[in-house]
Amino acid sequence: MKKIKLFIQNSKKMILYKQLANYYDKFYHIKNYKMEVDFILQIFKKYKIKVRNILDVGCGTGSHDKLLSLRGFDVTGVDLSEEMLKIARKKVRNGIFIKGDMRSLDSIVSKQYDAVILLFNSIGYNTNKRDFRKTLKGVYNHLRKGGVFIFDLNTKNLIMRFMSKQHSSKNEFNFFFKDKKSFGFKHVETKIKKNTIEEFFDYLIDDNSKIISVRGDFHKLGLFTESEIKSMMRSENFKVATFYNYKFKPPSKKFYSNVFVGFKS
């Protein structure tokens, strides 16, 4: 009989990025990193931005950076989780990966970059406008003149439209993975507050000779409208363009923006 190797309940330490970092890519194996990188390259081309080096803030396990490195770019990644960075360093041997908080970029990196990316809703871990603007300011300081900043975030507009269709302020969904040696189940419960999203993750993983059970892994993200985000970007001197779902669709009543592009002139 297999023994429970790890059991954690009601954690507020974002276990997914720490003790479960080795399972992160397995849970998100369906995420289309190539599509997102292709979009980034199209932005460079569309706006005629010459890019050689890229700073990836909230880089996680380095999946975007691996693809960008293969395209010939010099990549530097910043993330708060050392466990995630260890995986990124193995994926991108010629990359530079630094532990640090997105709100404190001035104390982490010293150079300027041609492009900065901040993907997979990571900027949402800024739960208030003050911290959001700290991150924007740090990015602006480390972006060269003429450079570009690309980030994604599920806006309050998008979330509220989705929730109105569900007729609820709560939503639940599941992730699975299975390979030769392991199987994993992740249950997510999302609760919408006035200006934040609270997410509770439960995990059950059968990994060869061990069972891992985690309940109540808590994540809290800020909830901002599209206009609030653009206003904060402009207040930090960015020129702004917005797109929907990594497609070159302009914002409309049907398609709210969730991809934001800032230019440093």
Mind explaining what this structure looks like?
It is a single chain. It is built from seven helices and twelve strands. It is of the alpha/beta class and 265 residues long. It folds into two domains: 3-28 and 158-222; 33-154 and 225-263, Vaccinia Virus protein VP39 (Rossmann fold, 3-Layer(aba) Sandwich), CATH 3.40.50. The strands form two sheets. Strands 4-3-2-5-6-12-11 form a seven-stranded mixed sheet, sandwiched between helices. Strands 1-10-9-8-7 form a five-stranded mixed sheet. α2 crosses α3 (63-70). The longest helix is centred in the first third of the chain and has 14 residues, at 33-46. It is globular, with a radius of gyration of 19 Å. The termini are far apart. The mean pLDDT is 93.
Helix percentage range: 25-40%
CATH superfamily of the largest domain: Vaccinia Virus protein VP39
> What's the CATH topology label of the largest domain?
Rossmann fold
Please give the count of helices: 7
Span of the ends, CA to CA: 63 Å
Mean pLDDT: 93
Elements, N to C (H/E): EHHEHEHEEHEHEEEEHEE
CATH class of the largest domain: Alpha Beta
Number of domains: 2
The general outline is: globular
- Please state the structural category: alpha/beta
User: How much is the radius of gyration in Å?
Assistant: 19 Å
- Main sheet makeup: 7 strands, mixed
Spatially, the strands of the biggest sheet line up as 4-3-2-5-6-12-11
Low-pLDDT stretches: none
Number of DSSP-assigned strands: 12
* CATH architectural category of the largest domain: 3-Layer(aba) Sandwich
Which percent range describes the beta-strand content?
A: 35-45%
